[in-house]
Amino acid sequence: MYPIQTRRHDKNPLKVLLSLVLALSLFSLTALPAFAASPGKTVNASATLAYNLKGLKHNVAVQKAYIADKYVYVTQRSKGTCYLSRLKINGKDAKYVDEMTITNTGHCQTLDMYTYKGDNYFYFSSKADPSTKYYWSLQVARVQYKAGKKLNYTDLPRFTYMNYANKKGSRLGETYRVDGGGNSTHTFFRVQTKEGKVTWAIYDTVALNKLLDSKKEVRMDSAAAKKAAVTSFTQSGKNIVRPNGSFQGADMLGKSAIYTSGGADGQTPKIALMSNKGAYKTLVNITNVGKREIEGVQTKDGKVYFTIVTNPKSKKDTQKIYYVSESKFK
User: Fold this and answer.
1) How far apart (Å, rounded) are the C-alpha atoms in residues 286 and 274?
2) What is the C-alpha separation between 295 and 315, in angstroms, rounded?
3) CA distances from 162 to 180, 249, 313, 321 (A)
4) Closest CA to 75 of 52, 92, 58
5) CA distance 42 to 202
6) Alpha helices, DSSP H only, in the chain?
7) Is the Cβ–Cβ distance between 121 and 142 less than 8 Å?
8) 316 to 52, 56, 95, 102, 312: CA distances (angstroms)
9) pLDDT tens digits, 82-124
10) Contact, 72 vs 52, CB < 8 A?
């Protein structure tokens, strides 16, 4: 073994200590997380109870609730299977009536009703990825509610190649997680890639549904799909708008206002407002519902609705829908 030769200045204990401190400082800087996107303004708001969800058949969290005229529709999941339940509104309660089951759909965060050719449809989660812990969905489908029906996601007309969902129809990366929704005029998709970027793409609802009428699978890289695109934007790194560092649901008002919620159990529920160009306008902290998990978001009649999982262990009769006024975001 050869002896280790050391230069004289390396033996200076002060210089060694200073070098160690500098190295540790540089390491700590590289280990710090990136700062989150910052809203134009942040406000606190007290929410108002809209409905108590009663009689659900599955003791799992509601992933998304949609309030219609007489009913509330909710999704719950078991691994990649989604239960779409219908609850009848009676005062402050919405009571379970019936449900349908769709297998291999994924996380079930997509549930948005719209009208097309006089009929009501839902945009719905589709194609579960069982390789992920949360069975993230990779596609978005169209479905009509049929009580008692059991389907597989392959039975539904749906949008595929979602990693091409953007104004140019160019490849975004490898698909990791897809959600969507919208209204009778405009549709949005949120596509997260394995590379870490998030793209929001807005399309003409009628144009997209005409494509679904003729094809069971509509590829988002097709010329027809690109023609239906209105606008899109991509966020990455610290610029991703993700309240509390999570994505719990989204909805779009018209074609210009995008609402997205975030927050797990133990965090203050938050809802963010973005423009259709990705400008982060407002963050609203919900201060009076406890630090409980927030699920979904829906805009309706000047109100922004969301679901709170009030009791993490008992969920069949305890989950609630609240709302805050849209004016809180302006």
Assistant:
1) 17
2) 13
3) 11, 18, 35, 30
4) 58
5) 26
6) 13-31, 205-214, 223-228
7) yes
8) 10, 5, 11, 20, 10
9) 999 999 999 999 999 999 999 999 999 999 999 999 999 999 9
10) no
Which amino acid is it at 188? Answer: F
Structure tokens at 174: 């490898």
Who contacts 198 (Cβ-Cβ below 8 Å, separation ≥6)? 190, 191, 192, 234, 235, 236, 240, 242
Long-range contacts from 208-213, C-beta under 8 angstroms, 24+ separation: 208/159, 209/116, 209/117, 209/121, 209/142, 212/142, 212/157, 212/158, 212/159
Residue identified by tokens 């979602």 is 162
| Residue 87 CA neighbour count, 13 Å, CB half | 30
Q: What is the DSSP letter of 141?
A: E
Helix (H, G, I), strand (E, B) or coil at 137: strand
Q: Which residues pair with 258 in a beta bridge?
A: 252, 274
pLDDT in tens, 148-206: 999 999 999 999 999 999 999 999 999 999 999 999 999 999 999 999 999 999 999 99
Question: Which one-letter amino acid corresponds to residue 237?
Answer: G
**Kind of pairing, strands 93-103 and 48-54?**
parallel
Dihedral over alpha carbons 141, 272, 114, 307 (to 10 degrees): 80
Output the six-digit token pair for 221.
């890289």
Contact 193, 173 (CB under 8 A): yes
Which amino acid is located at 254 in the chain?
G
Which of these, 14, 30, 39, lies nearest to 281 by C-alpha position? 39
3-state helix, strand, coil in the chain (%, to 5): 15, 45, 35
DSSP class of residue 317? T
Tokens of 300: 């309706």
